[in-house]
Write a structure and sequence with these properties.
Layout lengths: L1 H20 L3 H8 L1 E6 L2 E2 L3 E3 L4 E2 L1 H13 L2 E6 L5 H6 L5 E7 L2 H6 L1 E2 L3 E4 L1 E6 L9 H4 L5 E5 L3 H9 L4 E5 L4 H8 L4 E5 H10 L3 E4 L8 E7 L4 H17 L1 H8 L4
Family: Belongs to the bacterial solute-binding protein 3 family.
Keywords: Lyase, Signal
GO molecular function: arogenate dehydratase activity; prephenate dehydratase activity
């Protein structure tokens, strides 16, 4: 009798493990009728929250993904510092919004294929480009450099601008304002964001936008192990390129 009981419990345990092991987030999304997207809302022109609604290139992409999946989309505001934590704690199904592909993120989650090659550059007040067009000119104690906490901009500054005076901001939208107000001399940013601000604000100027300090790509983050959801996202990205949807959305969001 004891042996029979033991075998029964072993079978139950194996069955439970099997159910857990084959949990499928894509299936859950389809059943619940919506996909949740974590985004910071502070990185124009990819993700911007105005207090009422989200807008930007990756917001449009998220809405496209949801439409193609036959579900709705719900946005969850997060921060750069909490981006991976929110994904790990199931606060959202996918993270989007100008997220740089890098190995540390790949080790902690699944990363989609890349889209849009870009590089690190600077944003300064109009007329100050020649003052800050090299790392050597910026990497000085008297130069105030603004970065958003928890993102790759902060990582870049920590590595290459160790001698500069780093001023850290919780909200990335506050950094261009600080440049305009003279609170910081330089903002560490990426080429699309720098060009966006240069076009939309006459008081700001991009530095090294045609010759950035690094080269990277943006991508989307998906919880570790969710291969079917990752495959679906990559498939939809391929479809966007094939149909020219990505180009339409880039034009709409001043990325071309």
């Amino acid at each position: 009798m004891n042996k029979l009981k033991k075998c029964f419990f072993v079978l139950i345990a194996l069955f439970s493990f099997s159910v857990t092991a084959y949990a499928d987030r894509l299936e859950d999304i389809q059943k619940q009728g919506y996909i949740t997207v974590g985004t910071t809302g502070d990185y124009k022109p990819f993700s911007f929250y105005d207090g009422e609604s989200f807008s930007g290139y990756d917001i449009d992409v998220a809405e496209y993904f949801a439409k193609e999946m036959g579900v709705e989309v719900k946005f969850v505001q997060t921060t750069w510092k909490q981006l991976l934590t929110g994904l790990e704690e199931n606060q959202y199904d996918i993270a989007m919004g100008g997220i740089t592909r890098r190995i540390a993120r790949q080790m902690a989650a699944e990363e989609s294929q890349g889209y849009m090659t870009f590089g690190k550059c600077f944003l300064v007040a109009q007329g100050r480009e020649s003052e800050f067009n090299t790392l050597e000119k910026v990497n000085l104690p008297e130069v105030k450099v603004g970065v958003n906490i928890g993102g790759t901009n902060e990582k870049f500054a920590n590595e290459y601008l160790k001698n500069a005076t780093l001023i850290r901001f919780e909200n990335n939208l506050d950094v261009p304002k600080a440049v305009l107000e003279g609170k910081v001399d330089v903002m560490v940013t990426e080429t699309p964001e720098a060009l966006y601000y240069q076009v939309t604000d006459p008081g700001l100027e991009a530095v090294r936008e045609n010759d950035p300090f690094t080269k990277s790509q943006f991508g989307y983050l998906i919880p570790s192990g969710e291969q079917r959801l990752l495959n679906t996202v990559n498939f939809l990205m391929d479809e966007m390129k094939l149909k020219g949807v990505d180009q339409e959305l880039m034009k709409r969001n001043s990325l071309q």
